[in-house]
């Protein structure tokens, strides 16, 4: 993406004369939108860093690209801002406790175990539905967050059912 590609986005964000949703109304819309639950994790300065994300999206199959957003105020942002690679673990329907742990500030999110470091160092959550190890290709500032774009390098999958989050509650998908 070049500077010219970003210019239209900056212009759209700068338009102040049209009405816009309040942050609360915007959050209310997305609280009602169900999302898969993932833990994004990486190694930073010899220690694991991770957080819960419901913003992970598939961007392209060829090349294999995915992305997530992260608030610039997040305690994990300094590590993500410097990382080269990371892992995204898509949680299974019995891992709501893992999601809650990785969403909690001020604790060692890895102390309770339940994760394994890949040979390349990135932590993945044990028994997740799937995981992707990826290289960060771009960090784009958007509003008060960053859109982090990734190129998938390797993955693993299981037959587990996914964990879904909607309106501050966890749900399980059943056939």
From TrEMBL:
Keyword Transmembrane tagged: no
Lyase in keyword set: no
Pfam family, one: Flavin_Reduct
Residues in Flavin reductase like domain copies: 30-172
Keywords: Oxidoreductase
BP-aspect Gene Ontology terms: pyrimidine nucleobase catabolic process
Protein name, UniProt field: Flavin reductase (DIM6/NTAB) family NADH-FMN oxidoreductase RutF
Native organism: Xylanimonas ulmi
């Amino acid at each position: 993406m070049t500077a010219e590609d970003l210019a239209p986005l900056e212009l759209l964000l700068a338009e102040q004369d049209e009405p816009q949703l309040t942050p609360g109304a915007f959050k209310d819309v997305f609280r009602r939108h169900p999302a898969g639950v993932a833990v994004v994790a990486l190694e930073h300065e010899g220690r694991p860093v991770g957080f819960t994300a419901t913003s992970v999206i598939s961007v392209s199959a060829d090349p294999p690209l995915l992305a997530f957003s992260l608030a610039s105020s997040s305690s994990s942002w300094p590590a993500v801002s410097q990382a080269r690679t990371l892992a995204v673990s898509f949680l299974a329907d019995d891992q709501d406790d893992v999601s809650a742990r990785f969403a909690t500030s001020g604790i060692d999110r890895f102390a309770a175990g339940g994760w394994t470091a890949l040979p390349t160092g990135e932590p993945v959550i044990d028994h997740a539905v799937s995981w992707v190890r990826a290289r960060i290709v771009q960090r784009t500032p958007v509003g008060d967050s960053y859109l982090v774009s990734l190129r998938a390098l390797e993955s693993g999958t299981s037959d587990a059912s996914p964990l879904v989050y909607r309106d501050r509650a966890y749900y399980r998908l059943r056939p």
